[in-house]
Design goal:
With about 70 residues, the chain is an alpha+beta fold. It is about 35% helix and about 30% strand. The chain has two helices and four strands. Strands 2-3-1-4 form a four-stranded antiparallel beta sheet. The longest helix is centred in the C-terminal third of the chain and has 15 residues. It is globular, with a radius of gyration of 11 Å. The relative contact order is 0.29.
Length: about 70
């Protein structure tokens, strides 16, 4: 399953770091962050709960940029 989320990120480098961090989260098959459109596309692994996975993705992204926000609810 693939979903697109609105994301707030301040710079292109942070967007790349967030993309890398998201890909390391269990339940994420693939993730891309587009800084220009402020969108994050996430492909979930089979059987993953998107709500639980996105909470972990947000936690990982906030380690890169503490004030980032991902609108997944």
């Amino acid at each position: 399953m693939k979903k697109t989320y609105k994301i707030e990120v301040d710079c292109a480098n942070c967007a790349n770091l967030m993309e890398e961090a998201a890909r390391k989260i269990p339940g994420v098959a693939d993730a891309t962050v587009n800084f220009m459109t402020l969108k994050m596309k996430v492909e979930f692994a089979e059987g993953a709960d998107p709500g639980e996975v996105m909470a972990e993705v947000l936690r990982a992204c906030r380690k890169v940029e503490p004030d980032c926000e991902i609108y997944y609810e």
